[in-house]
Amino acid sequence: MARSIRTFGDPVLKSKAAPIATIDGKVARLVDTMFESLHATDNGLALAAPQIGIQKQVIVWDLDDEPMALINPEVVESDGEWIYDEGCLSIPGLYVEMLRPNRVHVRAWTLDGRQVDLEADELMGRMFQHEIDHLQGVLMFDRMTPDQRRQALAEYRQLQEGTATGQTRRLPLA
């Protein structure tokens, strides 16, 4: 059953998620719930367990109709730079130009217990970094410059109060 997405201000989003010790039926059910929750959103590409209130190191994504889940993912290497408008299901309506590494090497476990190493760049690389940040209690606001953060928080408050311009704003990298 789909769960609601936790939004900015919920303390669960600022806490580090616990690693999974054993991949079992309980983890498989969590992954199913995460996919149901992701698919219930209008525009989500990926989801981390803390975003539905579960403090476990699990992420799921569905890009190009190829759903996948990773257990205990970690970025083991990154390089390059890429600026891209980044959004978050837990900070709805706000997109901000974010500078992140362009390429990442991610190591994790699959639901069937295999260790995998994945190389990703651009959108997929950014998705991995963003979701793994959630597992560490890190939000987009934490990755911004102080000026960008002030501007983004003000815009997000306006979005929440319904006083924003009515269109999603993309804030430039400061």
Q: In summary, what is this structure?
A:
This protein has 174 residues and is α+β, with helices and mostly antiparallel strands.
Features:
five-stranded antiparallel beta sheet, globular, three-stranded mixed beta sheet, 174 residues, Peptide Deformylase, alpha+beta, 8 strands, single chain
H-E string: HEEEEEEEHHE
How large is the radius of gyration? 16 Å
Average residue pLDDT:
92
Q: Main sheet?
A: 5 strands, antiparallel
What is the general shape?
globular
Instruction: Give me the CATH architecture, please.
Output: Alpha-Beta Complex
What would your notes on this structure say?
The protein is globular and about 45 Å long. 26% of the residues lie in helices and 32% in strands. The protein has a single domain (11-171), classed as Alpha-Beta Complex (Peptide Deformylase), CATH 3.90.45.10. The model has no long low-confidence stretch (mean pLDDT 92). It has a five-stranded antiparallel sheet. It has 174 residues and is of the alpha+beta class.
